[in-house]
Design goal:
- The structure is a single chain.
- The protein is α+β, with helices and mostly antiparallel strands.
- The chain has a domain of about 35 residues.
- Helices cover about 10% and strands about 15% of the residues.
- The chain is built from one helix and four strands.
- The strands form two sheets. It has a two-stranded antiparallel sheet. It has a two-stranded antiparallel sheet with strand order 3-4.
- Strand 1 and strand 2 form a beta hairpin.
- The longest helix has 7 residues.
- The radius of gyration is 23 Å and the shape is rod-shaped.
- The protein starts with 9 loop residues before the first helix and ends in a 7-residue tail after the last strand.
């Protein structure tokens, strides 16, 4: 069984983990109501997608 000969330094360990960070969520604005929304998703506040009403949202 393979066993490391030396302890991995903090620098090497942290360089390996440099890609483990969380990604920033990209947001766009809804063309109908102007609220922030995820791209290529139906707007959760008004229910529109590409200037067409897809879902009826209650509470408006």
């Amino acid at each position: 069984m393979a066993v490391p000969k030396r302890k991995t330094s903090k620098s090497k360990r942290d360089m390996r983990r440099s890609h483990h960070k969380a990604e920033v969520l990209s947001l766009g604005t809804c063309s109908h109501c102007g609220q922030p929304k995820k791209p290529h998703f139906i707007c959760p506040s008004c229910g529109y997608y590409k200037n067409k009403e897809i879902v009826k949202v209650s509470g408006e």
